[in-house]
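debug: dumping io for the single-chain case to check the tokenizer round-trip. Nothing else runs in this session.
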Amino acid sequence: MTKLIINADDFGYCEGVNQGIISAHKNGVINSCTIMAGMPGFNQAVELLKENKELGCGVHMTLSCYKPVLNTHKTLVDENGFFFKRITKEKANEFDLDELYNEFCAQIDKAINAGIKITHLDSHHHVHTLEEFRPVIEKILKKYDLPIRGGFEYELKYDKIVPMLGSFYSKNVEADYFEKHIDEIKQYKVVDVMSHPAFVDAFLSKSTSYSIERTKEHEILTSEELKKFFESNDIKITNYRNIGESEGSKI
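debug: decoded output
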């Protein structure tokens, strides 16, 4: 049996995203999400987690969307105090790593202090996987000792890395995605498939080009056909809270 984590990224982004994720949890196959501590929908997301205790929640460490949790940064933000939207390798080399460490810790601590029992870590636009930020991620894992989504550019000696499939996105979001990728999924004991289900509201539509596609993800992830497909293929839907520490390795 393969344990499949379909993680809904961007919880806390805004009301439309929050409600879409909760709907995909109640009516579909989403049992895991990751929260963005610096986004406008954070407080609502925290309240929704209190009402949906079976939904596991990690922290979606953010460096390239909206504003940071801390307001003391010199290198991580533009002249208006917003994160840079695109993190190139050149831009990454300009960042003060102490600032980055403090910001990521502040995001994690904000979630913990809000009462969330953090299940794992990942990041917006996969910035945690960049070689340039390796020292920061190593310090964070030593401090918090949490499972983390894989996909690293570098080798990380850590026994709580869960493999990730990031292809359920954009043009690949089709009703037969999981059927097409079932052999790849079954190569693992446990694997994380990134997803972004949402309902579109004004904030989402104005702040990202990936908005309408999220409603299509929601439709697929709440279909009865998908639930039946997983059952018939011996796939167990779970979250990071319910996996063993050493199950994140490829068979």
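debug: round-trip ok. The first helix runs from residue 15 to 27.
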